[in-house]
Amino acid sequence: MQIEFTQKIQTSARVLGVAQGCQPTTTVQGISGFSELLNHYPRFSGKREQTLALTVEGNPLLLVGLGELASFDEPAARRLGGVIFNELDKLGISAATVDLAAVENRNALAVQLALGANLRSYRFDKYKKVDEDARPMLEVLHLLVDDEISAKNLYIPLDAQLKGVFTARDLVSEPANVLYPESYAERCLFLKELGVEVEILDANHLSDLGMNSLLSVAQGSQREARVVVMQWKNGGATPPLAFVGKGVTFDTGGISIKPAAGMEDMKWDMAGSATVVGLMETLARRKAPVNAVGVIGLVENMPSGSASRPGDVVKAMSGQTIEILNTDAEGRLVLADALWYTQDRFKPRLMIDLATLTGAIIVALGVHKAGMFCNDDTLQTQLLKASKRSGESLWPMPLGDEYVKEIKSEIADWRNITSGKGAGSTIGAVFLQQFVNGVPWAHLDVAGVVWADKEQPLFRKGATGFGVRLLDELVSELTA
Ligand code: BES
Ligand code: ZN
Ligand code: ZN
Fold first, then answer.
1. CA dihedral 41, 42, 48, 52 (to 10 degrees)
2. For residue 98, which of 28, 37, 10 has the smallest C-alpha distance?
3. Cα-to-centroid distance, 358 and ligand 1 (Å)
4. Which of 23, 65, 348, 351 has the highest CB neighbour number within 10 Å of its CB?
5. Is the CB of 326 under 6 A from ligand 1?
6. CA-based nearest residue to 116, from 161, 82, 140, 74
7. What is the 3-state secondary structure (H, E, C) of the chain?
8. How far apart are CA 219 and CA 312, in angstroms?
9. Which of 393, 392, 345, 369 is nearest to 244 (CA)?
10. Is residue 359 within 6 Å of ligand 1 at its C-beta?
11. Looking at residue 135, what is its pLDDT?
12. Which residue's CA lies nearest to atom 5 of ligand 1?
């Protein structure tokens, strides 16, 4: 969808923001008797994200509630953009002009609204020959602003975020017969055109590096493991920020096999890695003044005659040994080596990993917040700030020595599941912590937030692209 910032109403179809509690005057441009008109619709109060579609003098007019103006901020404007897109799309309108009449700071809010509308426009329909839902999609959205040039400039980095989110969603949406470690790694090569250095480490290379923990997950599959290393270098001699993603292209559970019902969901067990790829794209597109490294561990977890068995012991790249007591707790085995490799090679300023690591985080936080496990208070504060700005919500979860005791193995250094009860997400996190070597680090358990069973203002059902905008905001914050 095309976005145009303008100072004049460009289309017969209009969208008008109405603040809650303040009666609009009769002076709405081109609409006479506006407050009388509203009197016919007493249920429409201007409550945030409330909508009312009307026809006025033969032209479509969509009223949208802004809520209380004092709290109508950038995240609210972004969500409203999604709501507006959805309503216009339902109406089958192809072009409209949005007027946030009442607000101050119209430029900053309009660009966020544009981003929100575009985020909502995403569909993954490449495998549909006939799309029953096909409707004329909204083609152009004009937004009234005070200064066209400055709005256009403000939108440039947001468009970079949008493209990164779409890339993450595309990757997450692909079925596992199309996207497997080798094909996934190849797809990452598009980043080269944007100036990102991309290296693909194949299984032999990983074996030479001693990544036996990661490789043990892939050994039951016909598909070979890959690790992809992406570097965006635009920060001089400063140590990089590192982002590490779980990329299990399909998680059957392995020999500790999952139940059949819902197993199709495990095609998106690589969503953490997709966020890392999307983030690298965003940073490159907006030419972020930073050194950033993305490392993704790509494997398929299958049961077979060559798969690892419960009770197997492997030696990780760090030299520590792991007793694999449940082959379905495989994400931590992948990340153990990916995290160790990342800190060992790049000596980063900080590391953030993203992983659909545990079902338990969905029990704890549902689908609205990702769990954040952090060994550094400063980083945690910065992440929470980025979370607020991006609207991608995080909730702090505990680490702790008490939990570490529960992953001590009888015959190896660590076991990959608890010897105790409960706290499944923290157990996964403290396991990862053994492989970060003291570097400031955060683990984001995103199992609940990367795939939506219900639509929201900023996405339909399906892949959400969670984390790309959050981490882009964090990078902005750290490089400001
Ligand atoms: N990929 C799953 C976690 C998951 C579950 C993600 C549901 C998204 C939705 C992970 O590999 C897994 O299977 N974890 C196990 C860990 C357990 C064996 C300790 C889990 O959560 O049950
Ligand atoms: Zn699993
Ligand atoms: Zn998994």
1. -10
2. 10
3. 4
4. 351
5. yes
6. 82
7. CEEEEECCCCCCCEEEEEECCCCCCCCCCCCCCHHHHHHCCCCCCCCCCCEEEEEECCEEEEEEEEECHHHCCHHHHHHHHHHHHHHHHHHCCCEEEEECCCCCCHHHHHHHHHHHHHHHCCCCCCCCCCCCCCCCCCCEEEEECCCHHHHHHHHHHHHHHHHHHHHHHHHHHCCCCCCCHHHHHHHHHHHHHHCCEEEEECHHHHHHHCCHHHHHHHCCCCCCCEEEEEEEECCCCCCCEEEEEEEEEEECCCCCCCCCCCHHHHHHCCHHHHHHHHHHHHHHHCCCCCEEEEEEEEEEECCCCCCCCCCEEEECCCCCEEEECCCCCCHHHHHHHHHHHHHHHHCCCEEEEEECCCCHHHHHHCCCCEEEEECCHHHHHHHHHHHHHHCCCEEEECCCHHHHHCCECCCCCEECCCCCCCCHHHHHHHHHHCCCCCCCEEEEECCCCCEECCCECCECCEECCCCHHHHHHHHHHHHC
8. 12
9. 345
10. yes
11. 66
12. 359
Q: Which residue has the tokens 């900023």?
A: 458
Cβ(360) to ligand 1 under 6 A?
Answer: yes
pLDDT class of 101 with cuts at 50, 70, 90: confident
309 tagged catalytic: no
Query: Which pLDDT tens digit goes with each residue over 251-286?
Result: 999 999 999 999 999 999 999 999 999 999 999 999
* pLDDT of 436: 98
Which of ligand 1's atoms lies nearest the C-alpha of 417? 19
Residue 417 Cβ inside 6 Å of ligand 1? The answer reads: yes
Catalytic: 258?
yes
